[in-house]
Design goal:
With about 100 residues, the chain is an all-alpha fold. It has one domain. Helix 1 packs across helix 2. The protein is elongated, with a radius of gyration of 17 Å.
Length: about 100
Amino acid sequence: METIAVMDFVASVNHLANFAAPAFSLALGLAICAQIFQLNKAGAQSFIAQVAINFIMSSVVLWAGLWLFSRDGKMLSYAALIGASALCQWALSRTWR
């Protein structure tokens, strides 16, 4: 008879945190770089708002990659993560002006 492994709560939270870690670190890094490299330029959002919006966008891209490929960690998902995050930060920084 096969046994089904069931994760407990701590393991589930650990897996979810590790899944979201690339999205959060990229969102934080983009917001920090935007603060450093945009001297005397008013951004559209505050620092916390930029991190939150980039994190939400990045998380959606990672979930879409998980749904599309049925597994986590595909390089195409990470490439889409970087592209979508860069486009989102570009829009938040209003650099098209």
